[in-house]
Specification:
Elements (H helix, E strand, L loop, with lengths): L8 H9 L7 H5 L2 E3 L32 E2 L11 E7 L2 H12 L3 H36 L1 E6 L2 E6 L7 E3 L13 H14 L7 E4 L1 H8 L2 H7 L9 H12 L2 E4 L3 E3 L5 E3 L5 E5 L7 E3 L3 H7 L6 E4 L3 E9 L2 E13 L8 E4 L2
Parallel strand pairs: 1-12, 2-5, 6-16, 7-8
Antiparallel strand pairs: 3-15, 4-5, 7-11, 9-10, 11-16, 12-15, 13-14, 14-15
Length: 342
């Protein structure tokens, strides 16, 4: 038996599908959906306008070729992500020895270790999508900069739905009028004919400015004897300005291995109730080949992430490729407010 037959795409897909999946914040706001093809004609931004980009190539591993987005042009293609991994020589020899000894428990252990590498690729695809979704709820745009080019999408948030605080109005000033700012932003959305936002997202550092604000501390505890907790401040904001607060944590690795937080410090976003858009997955070239009978060695997991295995002769190994084609839409971009508070 060829050891490479053990590393097959159906078993890899089954392994990944049976693992519990974590619901990411961005995914809860932009649920996954599938569409055929590669065009962005269903991707929408503010006022239901199509969001578009220039032509891209399909020969890039994980990093993205230069794309630009304008709200008033004809749609082209979604960004394409692709990366592969080989089985290293140490794992290959261990697997051969276990097969020779017919030791199933060791075979399963080695295969599980190999499959974890493939899971990391699939998780990396999810992180790219979450990266884009979280950029949308930070300021309504997508901006991914790499050595191979830039991916930039502007979803057309109205200019008066963004504000940069200056001077003593900045929230790191304990005397800032934080409640007044929030009420003003809510009024802007209401005056423009949109529903009043129900949620506020920010980082832990930015949330700390609220807890240190003099007026808010006095409003919560007039005697100054209570040690304030995050839960108390969240409850106060819910009662005072009718907003549920989400403190966004976590980070992702950039292409150069440095880490970037999902939600930037000093940013505050007001969001309406319900979904804000969708995460669209298109048809990757590998999936298209399978659909039209030209390649069956492909499986799709998590709505739109394609997995494909290829036997290699030199070196003797298995190459496993993971690819996805997609991006989030943002139909409710004009119902949000984005502020930079420091």
């Amino acid at each position: 038996m060829d050891w490479r037959d053990i590393i097959n795409v159906k078993e890899i897909a089954t392994y990944i599908r049976e693992l519990p999946t974590q619901m990411l914040i961005g995914e809860s706001l932009f649920p996954r959906t599938k569409q055929l093809g590669m065009e962005l004609k269903y991707i929408k931004g503010a006022k239901q306008k199509a969001v578009v980009l220039k032509q891209s190539t399909f020969d890039v591993a994980v990093k993205i070729r230069a794309l630009k987005a304008q709200v008033d042009e004809i749609t082209k293609q979604m960004p394409f992500f692709k990366e592969s991994v080989l089985i290293n020589e140490a794992d290959r020899q261990q697997l051969l020895l276990a097969m020779q000894a017919q030791n199933k428990s060791i075979i399963d252990m080695i295969v599980s270790k190999i499959y974890d590498n493939y899971l990391a690729l699939v998780d990396g695809g999810d992180m790219q999508m979450e990266r884009m979704r979280m950029q949308l709820i930070t300021d309504g745009t997508i901006s991914i900069i790499s050595d191979d080019g830039d991916v930039v999408f502007d979803f057309g948030v109205p200019s008066n739905h963004k504000e940069v605080l200056t001077g003593t109005a900045k929230w790191d000033n304990p005397d800032a009028d934080i409640v007044g700012d929030i009420e003003r932003w809510k009024k802007t959305l209401r005056d423009d004919g949109y529903s009043v936002p129900t949620r506020m997202t920010l980082s832990s550092k930015t949330f700390g400015y609220i807890a240190l604000n003099k007026a808010i501390k006095l409003d919560i505890d007039k005697d100054g004897r209570v040690i304030m907790t995050d839960a108390m401040v969240m409850s106060y904001l819910k009662n005072k300005v009718d907003l549920s607060v989400a403190i966004v944590s976590g980070s992702y690795k950039l292409e150069d291995e440095t880490e970037q937080p999902y939600f930037q410090d000093n940013k505050v976003s007001l969001l309406p109730d319900g979904n804000l858009g969708k995460t669209y997955y298109g048809t990757t070239p590998e999936e298209a080949d399978k659909m039209f009978g030209e390649g069956t060695n492909c499986e799709v997991v998590r709505t739109g992430i394609a997995i494909m295995t290829m036997k290699k002769q030199d070196p003797v190994t298995v190459q496993t490729k993971v690819s996805q084609l997609g991006m989030p839409s943002f139909e409710r971009a004009d119902e949000c407010f984005f502020a930079t508070v420091v």
